[in-house]
Amino acid sequence: MEPVKKQIAENVILIGEKPFMAYMKSVNTLFRGKNLKEIEIRARGRNIKKAIDIAESSKRKFCHDLNLHTKQVDIGTEEFTAEDKKQVSVSIITIILNRI
């Protein structure tokens, strides 16, 4: 049986193993191309640092003309069962950027 995948909102960027600039392009596309006022950047585990770097680089360099601000930062822990049936806990972060 296939696991059920959750539907992800249009304004959410999930940070994974793609190159840094791929995520910067996504941020730019959502704010400029789709004219969204707010986006969520989500990451877990080792990708948390990359999520923070993407949010800060968006504000300071790549989209500095859009007057972006960090609206909210949420951190927590997510638990799931790994393939070897062990319970695993991993840190998560959600960064909400908006423009004024």
Under the CATH scheme, the architecture is 2-Layer Sandwich
Structure annotation, total helices: 2
Beta-strand content estimate: 35-45%
Order of helices and strands: EHEHEE
What's the quick description here?
The chain is α+β, with helices and mostly antiparallel strands and 100 residues long. The protein has one domain: Alba-like domain (Translation Initiation Factor IF3, 2-Layer Sandwich), CATH 3.30.110.20. The protein has helices spanning 20-33, 48-62, and strands at residues 12-14, 38-44, 68-81, 87-99.
How would you describe this protein?
The radius of gyration is 15 Å and the shape is elongated. The protein has helices spanning 20-33, 48-62; strands at 12-14, 38-44, 68-81, 87-99. By secondary structure, it is of the alpha+beta class. It has a four-stranded mixed beta sheet, covered by helices on one side. The protein has two helices and four strands. The protein has a single domain (12-99), classed as Alba-like domain (Translation Initiation Factor IF3, 2-Layer Sandwich). Strand 1 (12-14), helix 1 and strand 2 form a beta-alpha-beta unit.
Layout of strands and helices, then pairs:
Layout lengths: L11 E3 L5 H14 L4 E7 L3 H15 L5 E14 L5 E13 L1
Parallel strand pairs: 1-2
Antiparallel strand pairs: 2-4, 3-4
Helix pairs in contact: 1-2
List keywords for this structure.
elongated, 100 residues, 2 helices, 4 strands, alpha+beta, 29% helix, Translation Initiation Factor IF3
